[in-house]
Design goal:
16% strand, Rossmann fold, 7 helices, alpha/beta
Length: 243
């Protein structure tokens, strides 16, 4: 664990992290662990390598967050002080070429909007009952602008706009109960999920982001250093969007 000022430390705090197998979620797991968190990580994919990398103080549970029973079970154990929800999906195939685009649309909305709502509500109830905490969701610059290029899938952009609205709604329902709800809105980030996408015109920094550059803001929002923030969406996009 690296030395940290007390407000930035997660020492002694139990944190649930979704989407931990790869990309932003995996980077966030490493950062949260380095800050002292006791982790409960989850993903649909195999988590053995991540759990081995993180070492002791990490519990891994594999499962599908669209399964109501599995999602509810994540909040049945020891008290959590923070929840970082990094799981999400995007489809690289152009939507007009997808003969089952309407099925894809509902799948994206299910994973990217319904799950954050259901998980967020469960997290708020759980943490409020145990003295409060922090909930962090992951939106997208696409939810601000419609996407960084014409190839941004409309279902994905719409779903991330929905996440931004959920942050506001959940915050209004949670802040009086001692739970702070915030989000990060990444710009283009190099992850397995974004491979194969055209990422649009030249970005102000001349490059796309790295997963760890999102992991640190996510971790910050899990700490007491963010104790007067609720309903905020941090734009972490290298200057691609200036709100």
């Amino acid at each position: 664990m690296i030395p940290l000022p007390q407000p930035l430390s997660l020492d002694g705090k139990r944190v649930l992290l979704t989407g931990a197998a790869s990309g932003i979620g995996r980077a966030a797991a490493s950062v949260l662990k380095s800050m002292g968190a006791q982790l409960l990580i989850t993903d649909r994919s195999d988590l053995a390598a991540v759990k081995s990398e993180l070492g002791s103080g990490c519990e891994a549970v594999e499962g599908d967050l669209t399964d109501d029973a599995f999602l509810a079970g994540l909040f049945s154990g020891a008290p959590l002080q923070a929840v970082a929800h990094c799981a999400g999906i995007i489809n690289a195939r152009p939507w007009r070429e997808d003969e089952k685009w309407h099925e894809r649309f509902h799948r994206v909305m299910d994973v990217n909007v319904r799950v954050p709502l259901q998980l967020g509500a469960a997290a708020i109830d759980h943490m409020a009952a145990h003295g409060g905490g922090n909930l962090v969701l992951v939106g997208s610059v696409a939810g601000r602008t419609g996407g960084t290029s014409p190839t941004t899938p409309p279902d994905y952009a719409a779903s991330k706009g929905g996440v931004h609205t959920l942050v506001k709604w959940l915050s209004r329902n949670a802040v009086g109960r001692g739970v702070l709800v915030n989000a990060v809105a990444p710009g283009p980030v190099e992850t397995p999920m974004t491979r194969g996408f055209t990422l649009g015109p030249t970005l102000p920094m001349g490059r796309i982001g790295r997963a760890e550059e999102l992991a640190w803001p996510i971790a910050f929002l899990c700490t007491a250093a963010a104790s007067y923030m609720s309903g905020a969406i941090l734009d972490v996009n290298g200057g691609a969007f200036v709100g």
